[in-house]
Amino acid sequence: MIYVLTLCLLGSAAAQTPPVPSPRVPRQPVVQPLPFSHKMHVSKGLACRQCHAMPDPGDFATTPATAVCMSCHESVKRESPSIAKLAALHKEGKRPSWKPVYRIPEWVSFNHRKHLAVADVSCETCHGPVAQRDVLAREKDIGMQSCMECHRLKGASNECIVCHDPR
Predict the structure, then answer these.
(1) Cα separations (Å) of 123 from 12, 52, 130, 167?
(2) Mean pLDDT, the chain, as a whole number?
(3) For 109-159, how does the pLDDT look when each residue is reduced to its tens digit (9 = 90+)?
(4) Residue 167: per-residue pLDDT
(5) What is the DSSP string of 122-153?
């Protein structure tokens, strides 16, 4: 009886302990080769898809080519040292070496286009409130458990083959 009571009390205390953040969700901002504020760019009317194209079949949302950036920055903030660095990279035909904030393991199949076609799913669903950020850090866990929970809530299949290629 005392053993059972002790286990119940320990279980109750553990249930009230706040969850430990997943080690896959670093809370520190990712230092990028050039400063970039999503908040400022969104405030100018830009949408995610204007810069982050999803070429067929839609598996990846790309980082923009420097030509996309320079379409505005030929005349906007030209005096900025960061824009000057961007312009030099563009002239050399190089891209900034952006560091990924979120990365899906290679054994997981994920298609951005298919997910964005689902009602009430947006970039923010997985990436957090990017439009409110001057600097990005991983804010959401994109591990298997969080994906499966989202699938459950949306009525999508959680069969292994949906996300894992059997080859």
Answers:
(1) 37, 11, 8, 29
(2) 86
(3) 999 999 999 999 999 999 999 999 999 999 999 999 999 999 999 999 999
(4) 72
(5) -HHHHH-SGGG-SS----S--SHHHHHHHHHH
Domain ranges of the chain: 25-63+98-163
Q: What are phi and psi of 13, to 5 degrees?
A: -65, -40
Length of the chain: 167
Distance between CA atoms of 143 and 103, rounded to whole angstroms?
Answer: 10
- Provide the angle, in degrees to the nearest 10, between the axes of the packed helices 66-73 and 81-92: 130
Cβ 140 vs Cβ 21: under 8 Å: no
CA-to-CA dists, residue 1 to 8, 9, 10, 13, angstroms: 11, 12, 14, 18
Which tens digits make up the pLDDT trace of 19-42? Answer: 444 445 557 898 999 999 999 999
> Which DSSP symbol is given to 79?
T
CA distance 85 to 82: 5
| Burial class of residue 27 (count of CB atoms within 10 Å of its CB; 0-12, 13-18, 19+) | exposed
Give residue 21's pLDDT. 45
All residues at 6 or more sequence positions from 125 whose CB lies less than 8 Å from its CB, including other chains: 115, 150
Measured distance CA(27)–CA(138) in Å, rounded: 6
